[in-house]
Amino acid sequence: MKKRLLFTVTLLCAVVSLLNAQQLHYGLKADLNMFKLNGEGIRSNYTMGGRLGVFATYDFSKKWGIQPELLFSQAGAKRGDDFSARYIHTSNDQANKNIKLSYITLPVLLRYNINKMITVNAGPEYSYLFYANENLLTYNRSAFKRSDLGIAAGATLTFDILHVYARYVLGISNVNDIDERYQWKTQQAQIGLGINFR
What we know:
Elements: H1 2-19, E1 24-38, E2 42-43, E3 47-59, E4 64-79, H2 83-86, E5 98-113, E6 118-133, E7 147-159, E8 162-171, E9 185-196
Antiparallel strand pairs: 1-3, 1-9, 2-4, 3-4, 4-5, 5-6, 6-7, 7-8, 8-9
């Protein structure tokens, strides 16, 4: 019991000292998200979506830091004309062409500060699909896996409390939950704005 209490107090002290550190900043961000789903039975073109959430940055040194984010993401895709031909036994012939997907997204990016204004960043991005407005399959089966893992890379321009950024995310997971014959993978291109509260 004493060890647990000591660990909790130590962890709390570490978090408080981190929050008081001058290198820690946090705020809100929003972006336009061009989303594309590649794969058999899907129309491979970019659709417009958006993301909104919070971010934090912590610099270990003058040049290097880390940037975790927690975002609500909306994306879209379109059923291809060949969907029923690819998935003969499971497809819903009356399925809607437009697909709406909602994700909770967690990027954890490594930051490199070229100077006070320009930062480049890269790292993994995990997305959890919590809502999908699609009826591609019979018997209300879901066509999409819940988890999507990607690699993100981009750059940020900082202007005092505001920053603008551009980012590209390449999905490396197969999000097709119908069967293993065809892979569906995501691509995203984003441009956005962030506001630092601290």
